[in-house]
Amino acid sequence: MSGAATGDDDPAVVALGGGHGLYATLSAVRRFTHDITAVVTVADDGGSSGRLRAELGMLPPGDLRMALAALAEDPEGVWARTVQHRFGGTGALAGHSVGNLVLAGLAEVLGDPVAALGAAATILRCTGRVVPMSPTALTIEADVSGLEADPRVSRCIRGQVAVATTPGKVRRVRLIPSDPPTVPEALAAIEHADAVILGPGSWFTSVIPHMLVPDLRAALMHSDAVKVLVLNLAAEPGETAGFSAERHLHVLSQHAPDFAVDHVLVDSGSVPEGREREHVARAAEQLRARVTFADVAEAGTDRHHPGKLAAALDQLVRQPRPELAGLRVEGRHPVQQVRSVSGGKERVSWR
Questions:
Q1: Which residue ranges form the domains of the chain, and what is each CATH number?
Q2: What pLDDT does 1 receive?
Q3: Which keywords label this protein (predicted)?
Q4: Rounded distance, CA 190 to CA 242, Å?
Q5: How far apart are CA 29 and CA 313, in angstroms?
Q6: Beta strand residue intervals within the chain, DSSP E
Q7: Binned average pLDDT, 10 residues per bin, the chain of 351 residues
């Protein structure tokens, strides 16, 4: 693992999310620690995951598979590429990912989805481990406006794919069931974490759902870990179309009004200097967070650069806690705008 940290001082990091957003976070985090737990959403109902979920009654494996691939010993090696490989053609296997089928088989043989993920991680020689946020497959339901003639009227949309692709404006999301259990391994990892990272990812279907699982939310709120929220580089068509960085923060606060984080990490290229950054900083006050602006994007894309993101996260995770430095005032962090970590340059040359 090029540039990876070694030694006993590796921070214990828990990363929460799903899909490509979590893949980006894990690809970055593995560069500065080996002690990683990925806690993954389990509400996907589309594609291969949706088919296996419906036919076998299993947890949707797609997001779990992607997290495993991100943590594989060699993410570009034959095994990682094979688990990510999707069958073509028009037969029964068409559209299925190899890794999804492997996880389905392991879950049936071992009788436990967490054990199945552990076995798959052993095959891939993963750095860290992957666990679902709940042992129960969940359903996302959303209130969406803009689908009726009266813009004030909301329609209830059910299912992750439907919510992610709706042409309307998502106002609020819920989970069905509303009080699902949490995997004990996820709670234990958060309890012992040095840092917790939430985002980036599909805001309503991969990020916010973690705050809607009661035990998971309580564990996050009571954790002493440094908490970092990584914002998306751009609004996502359908799910968050037209959302500014500021709006992303407001929506998270609305769904979890008592949740606080230490840092909000924002790509410096996605929010112009001046008034827009001031708005982001004010929105971060709802989360009692400090805002850091840093260059974390792959040039010319809406994707996070693993090396740049690693450098920014490593710096935030390892810096002294604000309250320990005497900076906490009446239970809140002073909002500070940092245009770019290390003056716009990476402190470490991550490859």
A1: 9-41+182-327 (3.40.50.10680), 43-132 (no CATH), 139-176 (no CATH)
A2: 37
A3: Cytoplasm
A4: 33
A5: 8
A6: 13-17, 36-40, 129-132, 139-145, 154-158, 169-176, 195-198, 226-230, 263-267, 290-294, 337-338
A7: 54 96 97 97 95 96 97 94 94 94 97 96 96 97 90 91 90 95 97 96 94 96 96 85 90 94 94 92 92 94 94 91 42 40 38 33
